[in-house]
Inverse folding.
């Protein structure tokens, strides 16, 4: 089990030790905005994370209670990673990063999502969070029906 050695008890330090590299934010991006939740889907992202790094980062997210891992209802040899409520609480943070990045990199970003955020950020965040909770619940129910 991967644990993080904390340098201090500072809340910012705690956050940086979990999210302080690009891979964590990209995995969260894929979970929240791109509908990805399997190892192979994460590996297929444009940034080309290595299997070893992805395994390490997913284990940290699991150990921190930000994601949970279930067996795929469609394929018992495949695992799915789903955001927990703790992970879903990060949506406003990720929306701010997405919004900031799109402001200074106008060539990138999901146009429909960005339009919704610009129109009504609070509503967009709530809709994303509700969708993630609903998808998680649906997959957990399907998994329970399978086994």
């Amino acid at each position: 089990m991967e644990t993080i050695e904390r340098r201090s008890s500072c809340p910012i330090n705690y956050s940086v030790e979990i999210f302080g590299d690009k891979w964590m934010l990209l995995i969260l991006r894929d979970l929240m905005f791109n509908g990805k939740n399997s190892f192979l889907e994460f590996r297929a992202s444009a940034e080309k994370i290595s299997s070893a790094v992805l395994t390490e980062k997913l284990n940290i997210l699991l150990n921190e209670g930000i994601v949970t891992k279930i067996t795929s209802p469609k394929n018992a040899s495949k695992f799915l990673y789903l955001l927990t409520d703790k992970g879903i609480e990060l949506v406003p943070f990720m929306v701010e990063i997405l919004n900031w990045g799109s402001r200074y990199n106008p060539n990138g970003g999901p146009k429909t999502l960005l339009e919704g955020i610009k129109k009504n950020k609070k509503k967009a965040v709530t809709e994303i969070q509700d969708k993630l909770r609903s998808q998680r619940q649906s997959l957990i129910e399907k998994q329970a029906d399978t086994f």
